[in-house]
Q: What sequence folds into this?
């Protein structure tokens, strides 16, 4: 992985996990959890973030700027976001390792 791209990986993972912390479990008194997976496949680094929180929903009282997913879209080579119908979400991010 080129050194400059590692910063983009760190940014995307930070945005994804921050989204879980800030939004996924806002309806609960106790903190929730998330799963972070990492795999190398066909010349790329694939990082998955999933939770079993509220899923993706509009939030009028959002403490953020709403830039997490647009940033992830910009810095990844490919990504897939799947809301799971109010039972969490799954985000897969791919970073090509050749530059």
A:
């Amino acid at each position: 992985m080129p050194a400059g791209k590692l910063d983009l990986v760190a940014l995307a993972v930070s945005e994804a996990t921050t989204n879980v912390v800030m939004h996924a479990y806002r309806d609960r008194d106790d903190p929730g959890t998330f799963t972070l997976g990492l795999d190398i496949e066909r010349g790329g680094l694939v990082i998955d973030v999933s939770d079993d929180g509220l899923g993706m929903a509009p939030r009028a009282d959002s403490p953020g700027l709403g830039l997490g997913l647009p940033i992830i879209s910009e810095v990844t080579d490919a990504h897939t976001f799947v809301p799971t119908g109010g039972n969490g979400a799954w985000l897969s991010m791919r970073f090509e390792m050749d530059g």
